[in-house]
Amino acid sequence: MLTFAAFAAVLLPGSPAWAHAELIASTPVRDATLAQAPTAVTVTFSERLNPEFATIVVSDSARRRLAASAPVVDAGSGTVTLSPPPGNGTYTVAYRVVSVDGHTAQGSYTFTVADPALPAAPTTGPPVAAPAGSGGLPTGPLIGLGVFVAAITLLGYVSWRRHRRGESQ
Ligand SMILES: [Cu+2]
């Protein structure tokens, strides 16, 4: 039962989108870095959407929701207008839509605004992108490696002791 629950937890978040209304396009595109802030965000799905159940939320790196219009649904697309357009920074588009067959799709993606004419993104909140080469090594894998090396060393020592004991007997 526990195994099934864990299995379901892994599968369920992806399966509705995979099986039904699937995000097939967006503006801005996923992971885009834009030299000019977008005035609208559009997500397009593989099935027609129910206009009554479309939620599209755009939030900044501090998880503050941007001012935006209600979603306008046109067939498989939903659009929100951003006013004012956001400043520099990384933004998350989260969507939850219901296709006309009644199935729900939800997910999120990010895009980045990096307009050279605007002030740099504030440094508060999660880092936008670590400059290559400057970040420290992640500690998790290092600890794992340390434990692994210690285990191998211990095993080697134990087998060496056994071996010696075997010789002396
Ligand atoms: Cu469906």
Automatic annotation (TrEMBL):
Pfam families: CopC (PF04234)
Domain of life: Bacteria
GO CC annotations on file: cell envelope; periplasmic space; plasma membrane
One annotated GO biological process: response to copper ion
Compartment(s): Cell envelope
Gene3D superfamilies associated with the record: 2.60.40.1220
Location, primary (coarse class): other
Name the UniProt record assigns to this protein: CopC domain-containing protein
The entry's keywords: Copper, Membrane, Metal-binding, Signal, Transmembrane, Transmembrane helix
UniProt xrefs under PANTHER family: INNER MEMBRANE PROTEIN YEBZ
Organism of origin: Actinoplanes auranticolor
TM segment ranges: 142-160
Example GO molecular function: copper ion binding
Signal sequence extent: 1-19
Residue intervals of the CopC domain: 20-113
